Amino acid sequence: MRAMGDQDFRELTDTYRHELHLHCYRILGSLTDAEDAVQETLLAAWKGIDGFEGRSSLRTWLYRIATNRCLNALRDAGRRRPPEPVPPFDPPEPSRRGEVTWLQAYPDELADSEPGPEARYSTKEAIELAFITGLQLLPPRQAAALVLRDVLCFPAGEVASMLGTTETAVKGILQRARASLDKHRESAGHRPSPDERALTRRFADAFTAGDLDGVLSLLTDDAWLAMPPAPHEYHGLEAIAGFLRVTMAIPVEGFTMTPARANNQPAFACRHGETPAGLMVLTLDGDRVRAITRFLDQK
User: Fold this and answer.
1) Helices and strands (H, E) in the chain, number of each type
2) Share of the chain above pLDDT 90, in %
3) Any idea of its EC number (predicted)?
4) What is the number of structural domains in the chain?
């Protein structure tokens, strides 16, 4: 391809920037890491654009670069993981300690790409927290292959080329990835509806009022509470009640929850007065809340 200036390059690649960001987020599970990967991708593409011979589409070429930047990040033994926060209280023993402490929520307004007609997962399924968490628990190449093939619908031959392997190997990788992901995924996320808005409003009213019984009445019996980057996770009403009882005993003035959307799920931007206090994302199950994920370090 002929040499081009900065403006020409931006015009050529800006079309793909948002979908590359979502692609990197799916593999890395972190907005911060995804932004870094996209920046590295575009820098590498800028440096290599003169050597782009058009044997594949520009989109495929950019996805190849982005995927390999993500895999490099995941292979890096020094990959930055957030430090475990120190709570201002003594939390009860968690039900388990989560592995994916780097997980961050993805604002709905950024998730504007559509899967291809052959996608195994719908638009909303492919951005929900259960799906993203499941990807983080897969080996990196399995996660990358599954996203490229089953979400983005790249042909198996192109996926093999991107990953530097054979089409036969890709089929095996996908088979293992699909089986593993099915063990971790749960149905999650709903489109906004009057019933959803009423449920989430009742939840926010009870939570901001420190009404523990009111919060618990809105949860399923097998609900989960998680707080990335803290690894503590609480399962079931008794465990969640034990944690919330401790936290709600700490007086906090001016705590507010502003409705938002993230990962195709209802969410709240939390604040203590003027100070951001994390993003809370709810996973719904009918007329109850099945999971509360409080992203402590995200606005």
Assistant:
1) 10, 7
2) 64
3) 2.7.7.6
4) 2
pLDDT per residue as tens digits for the range 129-154: 999 999 999 999 999 999 999 999 99
The phi, psi pair for 240, rounded to 5°, reads -65, -40
Kindly give the pairing relationship between strand 265-272 and strand 255-262: antiparallel
Contacts of 78-83 with CB under 8 Å at 24 or more apart are: 80/33, 81/229, 82/228, 82/229, 82/297, 83/229
pLDDT of residue 114: 63
Residue 49's pLDDT band (boundaries 50, 70, 90)? Answer: confident
Listed residues 58, 80, 102: the one ending a domain: 80
pLDDT category of residue 171 using cuts at 50, 70 and 90: very high
Alpha carbons 18 and 112: distance in angstroms, whole number: 8
> Is there a domain that residue 146 lies in?
no
Range of the domain at 73: 1-80
Is the confidence at residue 281, as pLDDT, over 70? yes
* Terminal Cα distance for the chain, rounded: 42
Q: Where does the pLDDT of residue 117 fall: very low under 50, low under 70, confident under 90, or very high at 90 and above?
A: low
Buried b (16+ CB within 10 A) or exposed e, 165-199: eeeeebeebbeebbebbeeebeebbbeeeeebeeb
The DSSP 8-state label assigned to residue 151 in this structure reads I
Q: How far is Cα 33 from Cα 245, in angstroms, rounded to an integer? A: 34
Cβ distance 299 to 279 under 8 Å?
yes
Q: Is residue 281 part of a domain?
A: yes
